[in-house]
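Quick entry, no commentary yet.
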Amino acid sequence: MNITQCYAPNNDYNEDDKDQFYDRLQSVIEKCPTKDLTILMGDFNAKVGTDNTGYEDIMGRHGLEERNENGERFANLCAFNKLVIGGTIFPHKRTHKTTWTSQDHTTQNQIDHICINKKFRRTMEDVRTNRGADIASDHHLLVAKMKLELKKHWTTGRTTSQKLNTTVLQDTDKLNKFKIVLSNRFQMNITQCYAPNNDYNEDDKDQFYDRLQSVIEKCPTKDLTILMGDFNAKVGTDNTGYEDIMGRHGLEERNENGERFANLCAFNKLVIGGTIFPHKRTHKTTWTSQDHTTQNQIDHICINKKFRRTMEDVRTNRGADIASDHHLLVAKMKLELKKHWTTGRTTSQKLNTTVLQDTDKLNKFKIVLSNRFQ
């Protein structure tokens, strides 16, 4: 599964900046194998509109307003890469399509999008905004509901033992949350958010972390939970008191936002990935000031402690994003499906031989048995 999130230049940027952004984004998408699930999401500052003439394969008629120039660029990118624009294919009220509202509440637009490659279109069950789920932003929470099923592929004839197809498990503002259901027993919860910075008052920060805590509490402890985003939080290098959820490979000293964030992670047993892998400073820095004099590690990717070993690396990929003072933060993860063997005193197991009276089942059993002991 490949997830790409980005922030696109708005209409005020010059054409060269826009061209450079879409060229970079195209190069990122091209690195995603076509057989894998690919999700593209973010604030594209793009109104794609309701008219899908010429774009019937990648969008529906349930957008908003008319397509603008950014919307034209975005639609062409999606058409070229066969990415379906989720917010246009599900009918909803206008309030559930709007992803951005101006500060004076006079203008509303649909400029944030979640897209999925056409091959996996049927896994997307809904896309809509969840009003009131986010604070300190003029954007609204955009939620995609998805369902993936792992099926066992049975083969016939004389073959090697059957295996589960696990290739889909290869893993590469705003409180964006969506769930990916892998099976009835395994679920991954991904929560992405934008936290208030240090200039916000304490009430705003308290409200944000209370909301975030309520979201995390809804994630079952048995499931894989990932928390990521721009938390405006410097957690530092000193992990005293936080040894269970962070390492010593952060940057600088912990600030007040970092204290709040570390406490949240400790309470929910979420490991802060960027602090446990040793890297050069340039690969830890997630934000650089416009005058290039200040660098911080304020974006984070966290995973619940139960699944800590599935996270193999976290680092920034410099130059992979433009039109932003943030750098692309990448987590490398590896999930494996394992068979759970039971232990202890159990009742004796008996083979049900009555089914072998059926000739077809008997032949199938012989094939499986032969493959097992080759």
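second:
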Amino acid sequence: MDKGSLSRAPALSRTVRIHVPSEVAYDLERMQKVTASVLGKLGCGGCHSGHVLEFVHLRDFVINPKTLDVQDQFVGR
């Protein structure tokens, strides 16, 4: 392992992935509550404490069985 890869290792191990459905992702107030809650679970409700938060927007698709068309299903939007 070279010196450059060692310097990146701590950030990778401190990455937190949060899966967020559309009805939350498009609501700023709810996203702020989610962020505060996640940060609280990490030990500091007011800061990232060196963690990298990665929000993953969950999307649902619906397939029409007759035409096989793929459409987004937006819940709560």
